[in-house]
Amino acid sequence: MRQLDPTRKLDTGAERTNRPAMPRFCMPAMPPLGLVAVIHSRLRTWQQRLHHHAR
Q1: DSSP label of 15
Q2: φ and ψ at 48, to 5 degrees?
Q3: pLDDT at residue 32 above 60?
């Protein structure tokens, strides 16, 4: 419970690491919605074509 002791100062210098700075760009977690829609429509078309040829 040392971290709750008000007489102790928090040592912030010990927690610092030599991490590189954040890049100026950020990669999105999701691909563009247009790309998802195109992939979905092409997969659906392909599945329908396979289904109709199997008959």
Answers
A1: G
A2: -65, -40
A3: yes
